[in-house]
């Protein structure tokens, strides 16, 4: 008979930790317990009950032919048969650190994501065969460019390395294929590879809200508005009230040609959730497109503070100072920064620089940049920027159509 200390070491406490044992979420663990006889124990207690599982029982369940048959029966797609492959650290303390890092990632702020990156790097050293930790590290790194101060060059290559390791260890992690799709689109500019990765992720986890969210985001950015908004709404239906989903849905709707309603939604989100940076980023874009240089500078200043990004803060101050010399000076300042980014950031397209030129009423410079982009064979998404260019300048469609060819 096992001793009390041995049983305690075997215990995995709570639905969240039980799901993490398989590299899945708490909802999946609850569903498997209900529908597939996942061995879970409950101890009643007042208004709440204690839920736990024993590690050796979960491992036996995975190995059992009954469990395998039930997994195969979920769908005719064979990829789903891989879902139950356990992926967890041996040490419960490492598992707890992993869950803490995941919580920090979901916090979507610069300090929390940097803490997650640091902790996950440590976990991969302590548990080098823990696939989910590598995938989570890749996710934290790509999000650090959006919510922190990392450039694409400092975020994407190490994220790719971590992701490849994670998927080599466990190719059945839906989150890994989702991150692969994200990197394929935003870094490799390979929409075909991105679609394939997201399809694989949805085969493995059809109801994953983050996969629908990220896929909807890239489809809308690529100009496929109907499909993109459809996936964003699917994510919204699974995870109602999610601020990130509502924010990207509003930007997709604005990019698709709506104006007043999505703008009001973004303003409400920024007011109700003032520390959520993406809403301020989209408002900064819309202010620039409207020729509101002061509003653009104000949103950049907020972004700089929230992301702890000294470069953004300095840029906002530079634009604000240039405004004291007039709108033309402010335009030259913003364009100078855009051209500097284009020259020094590999993988960046010319879309933002063309937009700035168009807003400033310099069509000749916009055409020059567009011709250069065509020569470089740039492939644009950035549907919101393209809309802004068309709102501010006419006669550019021949170049825009080539750069945004679907």
TrEMBL record:
Superkingdom of source: Bacteria
Pfam families: TPR_16
SUPFAM superfamilies named in the record: TPR-like
Name of the protein in its database record: Uncharacterized protein
Organism for this UniProt entry: Croceibacterium xixiisoli
Organism phylogeny: Bacteria, Pseudomonadati, Pseudomonadota, Alphaproteobacteria, Sphingomonadales
């Amino acid at each position: 008979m096992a001793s009390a200390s041995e049983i305690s070491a075997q215990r995995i406490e709570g639905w969240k930790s039980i799901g993490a044992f398989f590299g899945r979420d708490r909802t999946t663990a609850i569903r498997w317990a209900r529908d597939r006889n996942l061995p879970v124990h409950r101890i009643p207690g007042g208004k709440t009950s204690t839920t736990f599982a024993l590690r050796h029982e979960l491992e036996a369940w995975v190995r059992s032919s009954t469990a395998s048959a039930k997994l195969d029966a979920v769908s005719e797609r064979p990829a789903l048969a891989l879902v139950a492959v356990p992926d967890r650290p041996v040490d419960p303390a490492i598992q707890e650190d992993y869950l803490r890092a995941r919580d920090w990632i979901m916090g979507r702020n610069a300090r929390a994501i940097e803490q997650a990156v640091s902790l996950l790097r440590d976990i991969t050293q302590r548990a080098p065969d823990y696939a989910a930790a590598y995938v989570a590290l890749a996710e934290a790194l790509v999000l650090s460019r959006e919510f922190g101060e990392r450039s694409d060059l400092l975020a994407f290559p190490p994220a790719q390395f971590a992701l490849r390791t994670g998927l080599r260890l466990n190719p059945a992690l839906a989150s890994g294929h989702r991150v692969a799709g994200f990197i394929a689109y935003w870094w490799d500019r390979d929409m075909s590879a991105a679609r394939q990765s997201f399809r694989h992720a949805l085969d493995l986890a059809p109801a994953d809200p983050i996969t629908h969210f990220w896929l909807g985001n890239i489809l809308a950015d690529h100009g496929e508005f109907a499909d993109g908004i459809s996936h964003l709404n699917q994510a919204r239906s699974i995870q109602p009230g999610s601020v990130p989903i509502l924010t990207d849905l509003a930007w997709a709707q604005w990019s698709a040609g709506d104006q007043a309603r999505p703008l009001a939604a973004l303003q409400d989100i920024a007011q109700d959730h003032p520390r959520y940076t993406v809403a301020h980023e989209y408002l900064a874009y819309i202010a620039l497109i409207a020729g509101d240089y002061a509003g653009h500078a104000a949103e950049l200043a907020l972004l700089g503070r929230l992301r702890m990004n000294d470069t953004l803060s300095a840029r906002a101050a530079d634009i604000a100072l240039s405004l004291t010399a007039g709108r033309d000076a402010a335009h030259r300042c913003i364009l100078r920064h855009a051209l500097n980014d284009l020259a020094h950031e590999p993988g960046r397209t010319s879309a933002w620089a063309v937009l700035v030129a168009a807003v400033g009423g310099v069509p000749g410079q916009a055409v020059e940049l567009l011709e250069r982009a065509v020569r470089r064979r740039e492939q644009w998404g950035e549907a919101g920027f393209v809309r802004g260019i068309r709102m501010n300048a006419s006669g550019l469609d021949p170049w825009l159509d080539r750069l945004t060819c679907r």
